[in-house]
Amino acid sequence: MAQREPTASAAPQREAGGRAGRRRAAPALLTAGLLAALLVLVLLSAGIGAYGIPLGDIIGSVRHRAGLGGAELDRVAESVLWNVRLPRVVLAVLIGASLGCAGALMQGVFGNPLAEPAVIGISSGAAVGAASSITLGLTFFGNWTVTACAFVTGLATVLLVYAMSRSGGRTEVVTLILTGIAVNAFAMALIGLCVFFADSAQLTQITFWQLGSLAQATWPKVLAVLPCAAAGLLAAPLYARKLDLLSLGERPARHLGVDVERLRVALVVVVALLTAAAVAVAGIISFVGLLVPHLLRMAAGPGHRFLVPGSALGGAVVLVAADLAARTIAQPAELPLGVLTALVGSPFFFWLLRRTRRRQGGWA
């Protein structure tokens, strides 16, 4: 019996099937690659610095602390590793994961790839609290006063933006964004007043906080971020399916059973928890929540089942790498972390913008 010749459309179909197969495999490969990169960066960051610690010593010390054998290091190396390096590394992982995940959620909620947590005023609100507490000389929480004020004002700003943008029991995306822009402008004016009235020492402290840094990382600060970060990171993937439905449009999402208003409220709260805790401890660190979801969306598609947890993992990788670079590029000086992420992120985001416009004719 003669074999049937393949039709003209068979080759394109096979090519499309191959692309679909690669797209389905991409999340697993990316997850494995990000986990491997994070592990390598954590070990490098723990060992590299003014006081170098060999990789074998790091692993041996961790095993010793965990009761799995190994050996304790000498007093100086043990102190540097456990009191300086590891708190900083763990804090970078938590903050990077929080910012990356928050960026993915914001872009999903607004349906806008330019959205990030700063849009709804979290960062500027937290900066107002920090600057005010420094200028007024508040000390009611001791060394935690600046952090506590930044966290409270960051959350309060989000609630204010959301309350001001509601009308008739609904919240429109455009109104929410415009309200956030107005509140951001007002917050910057308040920060300007704080700077005007601050003395030279207070001005230096405000500037250092606004530039973003993990130089003051300690285990208590890790514990301060951990509850909010854990709650937000555990809750975020639960909304992945609804975000996929929301990406079809508000009306189709409602027809498919999604309570869009309740979803927005829940995700704004999750984003506020993730971002306010991160900003309160580390200052303003930009572009992590904007770029990481973009890159993963380009590599694995727009599905939020991977994008939300993947952005958390990618954010952790980016921030650990950025912090390692910030404290080693200009040794013995240390670059501000927020400045470094902005210096690298701005041209990279411009490249993404040009690439998308060239390939798709715009962001839509």
From TrEMBL:
GO terms for cellular component: plasma membrane. It holds the Pfam family FecCD. Residues 1-20 are annotated as: Disordered. The chain crosses the membrane at residues 28-53, 89-106, 118-138, 144-164, 176-198, 265-292, 335-353. It is found in: Cell membrane. Keywords: Cell membrane, Membrane, Transmembrane, Transmembrane helix, Transport. One of its GO terms (molecular function) is transmembrane transporter activity. The keyword Transmembrane helix applies. The keyword Membrane applies. Its main location: membrane. Belongs to the binding-protein-dependent transport system permease family. FecCD subfamily. This is Iron ABC transporter permease.
